[in-house]
Design a protein that fits this description.
Protein name: Lipoprotein
Largest sheet: 2 strands, antiparallel
Strand content: under 5%
Shape: elongated
Number of helices: 7
Keywords: Signal
Organism: Actinoplanes sandaracinus
Helix content: 25-40%
Order of helices and strands: HHEEHHHHH
Radius of gyration: 17 Å
Number of strands: 2
Amino acid sequence: MRIVARCLAAAMLVTLAACSTGTAGPPAPASSMSEADLLAIGKELVQCMRDNGLPDIPDPYVEKNRLKLPDGEQKVMEEKYTEQQFDTAEQACQSVADKLPQGAIESGEKEAGGPPGPGDVEALTRFAECIRQNGVPEWPDPAADGRFPLRGTPLEKENPEDSPRLKGALDACQNLWGGGISIS
């Protein structure tokens, strides 16, 4: 899987674990950080990449709580730099990329990634509160690992495709969590 450094370098070509294994979640973008914090980390990441072999990467901006690069930069970056140059920058900047929460990267295509993790618990908790307020009062808060403890409950078998209340709650709360949902 490509990491965030590659995403920014290739104009958000690949998402940072925006899709998750587990049950399906709402598709809209979300982040557990303020836009100012996202932008600060995005700029730190781009500077790291510049310092590690990709000097012409433009500054990112934030739109709808997702980091983006200016339009048209994807193709420019892909033509200008080699796979090896991207890989070198990715490795050097991994610690900065790890600061970004899941769903914080704008992407043109989706790539499978890992499940939500401990860094996503704050955003997942807000998402859970919203789900409860929108017709699913038994929805639990996430565990410390970012998974929802739904196994063995009636919610585990309730499919959003067949459940108007669950579908309605997920639709109402999609602005709070854009990654997948994992259960335990």
